[in-house]
Amino acid sequence: MALGEGGGGGGGGGGSRLRRQLESGGFVAGEYVKQLSQQSDGDRDLQEHRQRIQALSEETAQSLKRNVYQNYRQFIETAREISYLESEMYQLSHILTEQKGIMEAVTQALLLQADRDDPALGPSDPFLPLSGKEAAGGGEEGRQRTLTTLLEKVEGCRDLLPESPGKFLVYNGELLEYDADHMAQIQRVHAFLMNDCLLVATALPNRRGAYRYDALYPLDGLAVVNVKDNPPMKDMFKLLMFPESRIFQAENAKIKKEWLEVLEETKRNRALSEKRRLEQEAMPRPAPTPPESTNPFEEEDEEEEEEPSAEEEAVDLSLEWIQELPEDLDVCIAQRDFEGAVDLLDKLNEYLVDKPVSQPVKELRAKVDERVRQLTDVLVFELSPDRSLRGGPRATRRAVSQLIRLGQSTKACELFLKNRAAAVHTAIRQLRIEGATLLYIHKLCHVFFTSLLETAREFETDFAGNNGCYSAFVVWARSSMRMFVDAFSKQVFDSKESLSTAAECVKVAKEHCKQLSEIGLDLTFIIHALLVKDIKGALQSYKDIIIEATKHRNSEEMWRRMNLMTPEALGKLREEMRSCGVGNFDQYTGDDCWVNLSYTVVAFTKQTMAFLEEALKLYFPELHMVLLESLVEIILVAVQHVDYSLRCEQDPEKKAFIRQNASFLYETVLPVVEKRFEEGVGKPAKQLQDLRNASRLMRVNPESTTSVV
C-alpha cells in the first residue's frame, strides 16, 4: 500500500494502526498532535508521520471515487429497470382498460336487451354510461326513474337538484380530476350530465355505489374545451365555468370523445329548447272574449290597455346572437377577451334601447347582469395592486377603458390610482441608498416625478371625458407627494446633513416638481407645505451652530490684526470676501500680508454670508420670518461683542482697532447682508434696517455704557 511505502519504518502495521486511530470515535486532533510532538525525536519523525497521513488521505480519496463510480453504475442500471417496468405497467394498464370497456359494453347490451324484453323492469345500475340517443329513446318514465335513483344515491343534491317533469339524465361516467396549474391528480369523480346541468360528485369511501355532492354547473354558463394530448397527460378535456376551470381525464380516447360529443349535443339541445320557449312566449296569445258591456267608456279603456301589451310582446329575442349571448360572454371572460365582451354588451344595449321591458327581456337582463358582475370582478382584479406592477401606467389602460365603458368610471379611477400608488411606493422602496446623499436624491426625484408625470398623462388619456375624476387625481397626487417627502426627509434631514447639502437637495426636488407644469399641474405649494417643518428645524439648528462658534471665538478674542504670512493666502481671502459681496475689502489690507481686521470679524463675515446664501436656496414665503429672525440673532452676537469691547477697552491703540472692526461690521457687512436678503426674497427687511440704525447710534456715542439690545 502507498501508506506502507511512504511510512519509512512504520510498515503496513503502522498504517493500519494509524487508520484505526483516526477512525475512532474519540479521536481529538489537537490532543493527537500534542502527543505526537512530545514523542517525536525531531523534525525527521514529524516529516515521516506527515507522509504517512498524506498517503492515507490519498488512499481514502481513491476509495471514495471507486465507491461513487460503483454506486453510479448501480443507479443507471436501476433507472433502466424502472423504465422497463414502467413500460410493462403501461401495457398492462392499456390491456385492462380495453377489457373493462368490453365488459361494460357487454353488460350494457345485456341490460338493454332485458329492458326490451320486460319494459316494467328498469336498469339494475342507473349510473352506467348512456349515449344521447339511448337516453332520448328510453321514454319519459324511464328517464324520470333514473333521475329519481340519482337523487337517492348522491348525498346532498336533493335540495339543489329538485325533481321536475322536464329534467332527465343524459350521460354519466367516472373521471379523474387534475390540477389545472400543476397537472397533478386530485381525485376520482363521477359526472352526471342532465339535459340542463352537469353534476359532479365524489365517491364515498366506505359505501360502494354511493356518492357525495361536489358541484353543480348550469349548461348555460359551461364551456367545453378539448385538451391536446401530451403524454403521459392524454384523454383530457377542460370545463370553463367563470371564474374557475377544471380539467378531467377520461379512461380512454373513446370515452373522451363520447363526453365531448354528448356535452356539445346537450348544450345545443338546451339552446334550441330555450329558443323555442322564448318564441312561444313572444307569440301573441288570443285574448279571452270579454262579456258584453253596455258601458262605452269601458271599451275605450280596454283598448288602451291592450295596446301596450301588444307592443310588449313584440320584442324579438329569438335571434341567434341573442340566444348565444350568455355563453359567448362566458367564453370571452374565460379567454380574457374583455373588449369582445363589452362589445357584445353594447350591441345588446343598442338593440334593447327602444324596446319595452317585457318578462323575457327581464330574464335575459338578469342573465346578462350576472355576466357583467363577473366581468367587473375580473377587471377589478386586473387593476388590483396584488397583480404585477410592471409595464407602467399604460399596462392598466385595457382594464380601465373597459370599466369606463361598463359605466364604472368612479371605480376605474379609484383602482387606477391605487395601482399607481402601489407602483410608486414599490419603485421608491427598491432604490438602493448608496453613495452621497445628493446622488440618492437625484435618483429619488427622477423615479418619483417621472412616475407622477406618466401617471398624470395616462390619467388624462383614460379619463378625458370624466371631469369629475380630476379632483380624485389631485388628492392622490398630494398623498403621493407626502410619501415622497417622507423618504426625502428621512434621508436629508433625519441624517443631519449639512445645510449646503440640504439646500442642494431641496433645489433638485423643486426643479423636478416644476416639470409637472408641462401638463398644467403645479404641486410646488404642496412640497413647500410638507417640507416647511424640516427646513425650519435645519435653519434653527445651523443658526445655533453659528452662534456657538461665534461665542467661542469671541471668548478668545485678542483684538489683533491678521497676518496671512503669504501673498497667496491674502489673495485667497480677497476672493472669498468678494464672493461674499464685500467689494471694498482692499481698503482693509495693509502692508505685506497684513489685514487690518481681527480674525473673529472675518470668520463671522464668511460664516454669516454662507448661511444666508444656503438659506436663500431653501427660501419660500412660509420661511420668511424664520430666516429673518435667525439672521438677526446671529448678527446680534457679533454686534454686542464689538459694542461691549469698545466700551470696556482702555488701551487707545486697541480701542482704535476695535472701532475699525466695528466700522467694517456696520458699514460693510450689514449693508451687504441687507442687500443680498432683499435680492433673494424680493422685499426689504425692516428688522435689518432697524438693527443697522441702532448700530449708528452706538457709533455716535461709543463711550455710552448702554447696550443696543
From TrEMBL:
Residues 168-268 form the PH domain. It comes from Cairina moschata. Signal peptide: none annotated. Residues 271-282 have a biased composition (Basic and acidic residues). Component of the exocyst complex involved in the docking of exocytic vesicles with fusion sites on the plasma membrane. Gene3D superfamilies: Exo84p, C-terminal helical domain, Exo84p, N-terminal helical domain, Pleckstrin-homology domain (PH domain)/Phosphotyrosine-binding domain (PTB). This is Exocyst complex component 8. Residues 1-16 have a biased composition (Gly residues). It is found in: Cell projection, Growth cone; Cytoplasm, Perinuclear region. One of its GO terms (biological process) is exocytosis. Keywords: Cell projection, Cytoplasm, Exocytosis, Protein transport, Transport.
